[in-house]
Amino acid sequence: MRQAVQRNGPIHILCANAGITNEASHPSIWDLPLETWESVYRVNVRGTFLTIKHFLRAAKLHQERTGIELENLAIVVTGSECGKFGQAGHAEYASGKAGLQYGLVPTVKNEIVRLNSKARINAVAPGWVNTALIGDRLDDPRELYMESQGTVALRKIAEPTDVAKAVAFLASHRAAGHMSGQCLSVDGGMEGRIVWREEEVLAQKPAAQQPALQPSVPQQISKPKPKSTLKIAWSVDFDAVSGWLGTGAHPDNTTTDYSAGYLSALVGVPRLLKLFKKLGVADKVTWCIPGHSIETFPDQTKSIIDSGCEIALHGYAHESASQMTAEQERDVLLKCIQLVEDLTGKRPRGYRAPLYQLKERTISLLQEHDFLWDSSLTHYDSTPYYLPLNPAPITPIDFSPDKKAESWMHPSPDFDKLPKSNLVEIPLNWYGEDATPLQFYPHTANSAGYVDVRVVERMWMDRVEWLRSEIADGDEEIKVFSIVLHPDTSGMAHITGMIERFLTWLVGFGEEVEFLRCEEIAEMYKQRQGQS
């Protein structure tokens, strides 16, 4: 819409014409795939809503700038006679179109005049139209009769120009300036639909010949199986200044870089806590906090703890395991355990390696200190799993000239066959975080920072939709959607809005999703595996 306004000036007329369906199949509602329903609604209903919304926002902005109402502000929505008479085999299409022409249009009619005193919105409801959308559906003369002749007074299918003329009429203030909130049928005088085909009626036996009905109530009623939900592992890494001290250490770091760490505490943490509380998920979030952040920002840390969330470890100065000796890594872990225990009165149960950079010895160290979960690895992308018991490191290949090729030509260990520990891995990777695409780091080679937030938002949505489809297909594994935010990234105003949109979208799935702390997911996984 912004591009259209920049190219053409203020837009006076909107034709919201969105319509897709799947003509390859015509399932009854009990066989209708959820993916079909949602993909059709995404285009036909959501697409129409967003188009109208931003058309009117552009008009509002122009009027506020000029102080003058736009002339002939008009919207014409493409509905369908399916929304009036229904369409067996296409509940997703008919219900969406009905909602637009009989729900959205009359509602917006009463709203739009508050924006512009002469503004109007109407709809056209075409019947069958000779477009590519219907494919070869009506090539069969019997099908043509059933759908567009037997119940249509004009006994013919419409051409696109028939609909276009009706749209032009409704869009014209001179021709239809006193019409608003109306749905104009362009269906050739359609009276309805033929419900039963001739062959369906003739195929039925007389009632007297029907076998006696068998009792439909089972002798025993079994308890319904609990419906699976998508587990949302929403987490925040409060790196702050520590992010520039450990894995982010660089000889060219400046005060400007460190100031972004302070923004994390002074702006990001309060914004995110407020948002989580607003959406009712604050106590279902896992915060991974480096020891440096705990000691540098005690007030913010207390606010985080007071939200009822889980507190997990994340190094002291955001150190990579590769930056430390084994002794140093042990000392850091023990120090941070004590910091959290002093603040919360209980030992932390979870760990995320700074920048996901742990070593095999890190896993052994976590096992030694009875940690419940880690979230640094990604053998799987959405299913919890047990980490190996004291795993041996994978040795890098030595390509020295004096080495024989046979010295490295052997397989790595079979992960599934390795003896397992009780340490649960809640998988996470680079595609489940905000900082990599949305934060600019001056001294990091793969830094981005100027990615449109909607690219990341859409990627996360696609992941959720795929995991929901796996659950719908009967996959009985625990499905987890893991996300990690950083207050210095998601605390920035242009990103916080996206986070709110995405979280609101997630919450909108109701009982299909379940926000859980990482410790709850790990306990659930252990219980599923028969352990406690």
Automatic annotation (TrEMBL):
<dbReference type="GO" id="GO:0016810">
    <property type="term" value="F:hydrolase activity, acting on carbon-nitrogen (but not peptide) bonds"/>
</dbReference>
<dbReference type="Pfam" id="PF01522">
    <property type="entry name" value="Polysacc_deac_1"/>
</dbReference>
<feature type="domain" description="NodB homology">
    <location>
        <begin position="255"/>
        <end position="514"/>
    </location>
</feature>
<dbReference type="InterPro" id="IPR011330">
    <property type="entry name" value="Glyco_hydro/deAcase_b/a-brl"/>
</dbReference>
<dbReference type="GO" id="GO:0005975">
    <property type="term" value="P:carbohydrate metabolic process"/>
</dbReference>
<protein>
    <recommendedName>
        <fullName>NodB homology domain-containing protein</fullName>
    </recommendedName>
</protein>
<dbReference type="InterPro" id="IPR002347">
    <property type="entry name" value="SDR_fam"/>
</dbReference>
<dbReference type="Pfam" id="PF13561">
    <property type="entry name" value="adh_short_C2"/>
</dbReference>
<dbReference type="InterPro" id="IPR002509">
    <property type="entry name" value="NODB_dom"/>
</dbReference>
<dbReference type="InterPro" id="IPR037950">
    <property type="entry name" value="PgdA-like"/>
</dbReference>
<dbReference type="InterPro" id="IPR036291">
    <property type="entry name" value="NAD(P)-bd_dom_sf"/>
</dbReference>
